[in-house]
Fold:
Amino acid sequence: MKTSIATVSISGNLREKLDAIAKAGFDGIEIFEQDFIADEAGPREVGQMVRDHGLEITLFQPFRDFEGLPEPLRAKAFDRAERKFDLMQELGTDLVLICSSCHPRALGGIDRAAADLHELGERAAKRGLKVGFEALAWGRYVNDHRDAWEIVRRADHPNVGVILDSFHTLSRGIDPETIRRIPGDKIFFVQLADAPALDMDLLYWSRHFRNMPGEGDLPVTDFMRAVTATGYAGPISLEIFNDQFRGGDTATLARDGHRSLIALMDDVRRAEPDLPVAMDPMPARIAAKGVSFVEFATRGAEAETLAKVLASLGFAHVGTHRNKQVTLWQQGEIRIVLNSETEGHAAHVWNARGTAVCDIGLQVPDAAEVVARARALGSEPFSQPAGPGELPIPAVRGLSGSVLHFIDDSADLSAVWDLEFGAKGSPAGAGLTRIDHMAQTMSYDQMLSWTLFYTSLFDMKKSPMVDVIDPDGLVRSQAVETRDGALRVTLNGADTHRTLAGAFLEETFGASVQHVAMATDDIFATLEQLEALSFKPLPMPGNYYDDLAARFDLPAGLLDKLKRFNVLYDADDRGDFFQCYTSAFAGGLFFEIVQRSGYRGYGAPNAPFRIAAQKRLRRAKGMPTA
Structure:
């Protein structure tokens, strides 16, 4: 299986794109004419530059408004095609994309279009070139791959084939199963793109909101299953038009693209086990079992503050690392590691960001399989020198400098807490049992990358994106979670530093985890115990509780308890949700205590009130809030 990407899909100039595409592991590129024209090098030099990167030019595109034109426009279209054939030969590629005409003077008729493509095929054959015909979703007369195939079939020329694009098929709601009727040898090229489910003009949707397979809502896997069933064995390529991508990090986008194709074809291989899918096998998506630990890089006064926060939440200091300045705090199944080392990854995080989450440990069925899949998807393994008596725990680098370690129930890995910290048992504390979810904050244009990272590596689903209203802006939030809720992560994208999430990013220079939510079976019993430990919840205004009384038919006495303990409340058709927050510390980090009984969300309706309360405290401390 050859992987390819259109140069229009990522940001940068042509040379930057080629470097990123090659490093991401692609085999080739679709050279977008605009990228070529904007470069100072001539076609021969550009072609050689592509090959010097270990890439091939899989497709030259686009050639527009060709078929069905009246004279003299028809003759001019063939002249234009001949000039593009000259260019293709100098570049060193043999396939051109002809997209169905949108020309206002184009004439309809399948036979007319077929005749034009047959003649173009004759001209291409004389040069050893091929022509691929694609149905644009907004084409004037041809906007369906079934019509494009019928035109190619009637053209009846060995140098003329059809090009399929998942967006053009799926955006119009065309059943991808109809692709199975096309002979695989007449499919010359396949382009892939996903997109969020939006109700808008097809052209505008296509030009601004496409994204990588797995990042949107279209059934791209079903499309590719149908393509594979035809026997198609050519390149699979990405063609993405997206406003975020145009200003994003070139290398990250290229890696995301390659990851998306590998994950997609693995899904196809598993869904169609009887079909030959030419790719190296890798483990299936992993069903993560939860968060094993959260590790903070912290030192000095900030470490003391964090330790006091943990003690006020009922955590016990259960162990100190045998070789390092690292302590372990625990309550129930929740482990918090405080790392004050002056060398290594945690030290780098501290130097760059101050107190911040530097590492997340996930409980998984098989740590080696997780790392194998992550590496197949393009993630880098992570390791540090192990000291005496230390266990090598499998890990990979995530995004934005993050690190993920993986712990399974094997004899070696499950004993890490005893062997390295001398920790035994699980203190009950105040009734906090496990990590319910983590909230990771990022710039908005990084959200798709984070979503793809999680959903391609783990067996996780993503929720619809929601808007969280901050008094000073908008934060977009999307959750990814395992099917049983064992691992939940909310991804929060900030557009401006004026929001609380944006201020956190700015003050911590891009730290990821902003808060950790911990579950209890009885939030009021937990908070009553924490009162004796000097726990101080985030104070909520009386107006909030007056509004709750109007919105919900609460049982007698519940409103008073909510108000007394500063607990926020929400409910859905499956159950109730209770939330309480700590005040922020160390640049905007905070903890959350939650109780859920069937409730599926994360208390999004309460977010504006929580944010307003946090900003009031920042103002009281003389800290900027916008």
Q: What stands out?
A: Residues 3-271 form a domain with the TIM Barrel fold (CATH 3.20.20.150). The first strand starts at residue 3 and ends at 6.
